[in-house]
Every structure is written in structure tokens, then in C-alpha cells.
Amino acid sequence: MISQSENDSACEAPVRVKRAKPASLSIPGDLAGRAAFLARLHRAADLESWVERFLRERIELEESAFTEAKKSLTP
């Protein structure tokens, strides 16, 4: 609230966030080859950036579908 904006005791404790450590994934060679072909087809700078973009898009799609399914199950 605006009336509490100058009152430091009205603030909650700060939230500490730790950055996740990078992870490596291993995929079969034939799948990597197919992914490399698609990365070139999409004119990606490199395979790694294309795979990262693809995974982000897919995860957002899956999360959205999960949220909608959860809403439809909630009375």
C-alpha cells in the first residue's frame, strides 16, 4: 500500500535466488544429425542456440497445456 511505502518494517524479507548450474545433455548421434539439419534449415547461428530455442518454445507450450488442463479439472 502507498501508506506503508516509507515504512521499512512493512516490507517482507528479501527473496534470495540462486542461479541454476548449467546442465549438459547427451543425445544419440542420429538425433543430433537430424537436429543439425533442422538448425541449418532454420538458419540458426549454431546447433546449440537452435536446440535451446526449440526447448524453450516446447517447454512453454507444455506448461501452457498443463495450466489449461489443471484449470479444466478444478471445480
Topology diagram in text:
Layout: H1 29-41, H2 47-73
The N- to C-terminal Cα distance equals: 32 Å
- The computed structural class is mainly alpha
Q: How much helix, percentage-wise, in residues?
A: 40-55%
List the secondary-structure elements in sequence, H or E.
HH
- The portion of residues forming beta strands comes to under 5%
- Secondary structure: number of strands: 0
Cα-based radius of gyration, to the nearest Å: 21 Å
Runs in which pLDDT lies below 50 for 5 or more consecutive residues are none
The shape, in one word, is elongated
Please, what is the average pLDDT?
A: 87
Major sheet details? none
Number of helical elements: 2
Please explain how this structure is put together.
With about 80 residues, the protein is mostly helical. It has a domain at about 25-75. Helices cover about 55% and strands about 0% of the residues. The protein is built from 2 helices and no strands. It has helices at about 30-40, 45-75. The longest helix has 27 residues, at about 45-75. It is elongated. The two termini are about 30 Å apart.
Short description:
By secondary structure, the protein is mainly α.
Descriptive tags:
mainly alpha; 53% helix; 75 residues; 2 helices
